[in-house]
Amino acid sequence: MGDETEGRIDVAHVNVDFPLYHGSARSLKKMVLSTVSGRMGADAKNRVVVQAVRDVSFSLRRGDRLGLIGGNGAGKTTLLRTLAGIYEPVSGHLRVQGSIGALLDTNLGMNIELTGRENIMLRGLYNNLPPEAVARLEVDVAEFAELGTFLDLPVRIYSSGMLVRLGFALATAVRPQVLLMDEWFLAGDANFLAKARVRLESLVRGADILVLSTHMPDVILEWCTRVLWMDQGVIRADGPPDEVLEAYLGHKVVRRDPALAATGG
Fold first, then answer.
1. Is residue 40 in some structural domain?
2. 40: Cβ–Cβ under 8 A, 6 or more apart, which residues?
């Protein structure tokens, strides 16, 4: 990452493996290496590994909006987390230039033992915000999350819905150049979703680059300019949203009216 003014992503032949540390027993190794998925292998230390992302390459520049589609276990979330710096490739080249905003997990970056308000201050300090900016951040997150007195209670007692609201408000409070999103951001009740969508759309418009993983074709068609179809860790198709979605779904896709999509109609 650097201090350049525009976001940029370059991924070249990236591979991400997860070792099975208890997989050295001969019987287990024989079983996993013979699996029909073809995603098991062995690393240089002769450990059994799951090949989560395999030989993935693409480049994104300012204005690009990339959608990731594929079944569960296709490698979408692993790729997002690799772009965010959470996972490190075992081989290949990866460069992400610009500030990163990662909406990957409801409690990513939160300390559940702290109160909601303390977590807001923690996020401000992490982003090197001056005191007056931290104060504005606190007001913004508090108003958006609508947690009331719960804001001063430990996050560990929050319901899943409250965690989503706080996590979403925190993750979207600071505008990044590179925005990485998994579909947890669409969790929550109907009233929250309508409110969240407006905030998200503003965040998406302000980012140089968007990388979005979702199972929702309407969101892909509305927000994305390009789609990668991932299957068992590899890119199966790369192209315009309509074309890739139709190949993936097996039928033609119809763009819905944005106003209807926003309300679920």
1. no
2. 32, 33, 48, 49, 50, 51
pLDDT digits (tens, 9 = 90+) for 22-67: 544 455 555 444 443 556 666 666 667 788 999 999 999 999 999 9
Please say whether the beta carbons of 233 and 82 come within 8 A: no
User: Which runs of E-coded beta strand occur in 136-206?
Assistant: 178-181
Q: What is the pTM of this model?
A: 0.80
The backbone torsions φ and ψ at residue 52, rounded to the nearest 5 degrees and listed phi first, read -75, -40
State the DSSP code for 30.
H
Decide if 28 contacts 43 (C-beta within 8 A): no
Q: Domain span at residue 68?
A: 59-263
The residues pairing with 41 across neighbouring beta strands, listed in sequence order, are 49
Structure tokens belonging to residue 262:
């926003």
Total domain count, the chain: 1
CATH number for position 118:
3.40.50.300
Tell me the residue type at 165: R
